[in-house]
Amino acid sequence: MAPIGKDRLTQRLEQQPDVVQTKLWTVVKPVHHFVRGIMAFDAPEKNGLYGVWSIHSLWAPSSPTELENTIGFSTPLPQGEAIVIYPELLPRPIQYEAFEDTVRDEVLPFLRSINTMERFYHEITNRPANLNTNTPDSKFCLELAMGHFDAASTLLAQHRDHWFRKQDDDFDDYELEQIRPLCRLLDDGNYGAIARHLHEWEASTTEFSDLDGLWEPSPFPFEPEYKDWARKSGPKAD
Fold this sequence. Notes:
Layout: H1 5-14, E1 19-21, E2 26-28, E3 34-43, E4 48-57, E5 66-71, H2 82-85, H3 96-113, H4 117-125, H5 136-146, H6 149-164, H7 170-188, H8 191-207, H9 226-233
Antiparallel strand pairs: 1-2, 2-3, 3-4, 4-5
């Protein structure tokens, strides 16, 4: 069999009805509160492909909740970003056909299985510590998105001083400025406003990404219409 290469792999993946190619990612549909995607890179000098899979939230653009790992190496890497930052440290990739088999038989079935907020949350919270790089502020936003307001309040109590303190780094302060309104809404018990804030974040994130036309707005688990939406939309909420 001739080497398939990234372009050929993309063509084969797009033949599946729930897979679509964006500018950077091969995305699994539907796209509701998070994006499930694969990014592949050609390594012709090594006669192979390597890549990453990723699941990341659309709410809290400055503090997203993420799952990710590498694809296509004989030696696993703990973090997908190592591919871009330290390419010279990469182990040898597996061959083209083996990469396609891995994507088809392992990666895509896994991404498809994470099809509800409940399953996303379960995967995040059961992730080994060395593979979980989500920060306290991203965990706070995840707990809010799930409607776990007691857990979010605990995180807020633990980190309030830091989150509301002016940061020395302007970028760090900008990131925290994004979640301070949610902290105030949680203090007030204004859960409806929290939902609206998260929805606005999602809309803004998709507007300035290559997900235009893919994102399907949907309720969060704590919103009254969620169970009815989940029942009609297909995937069973846990």
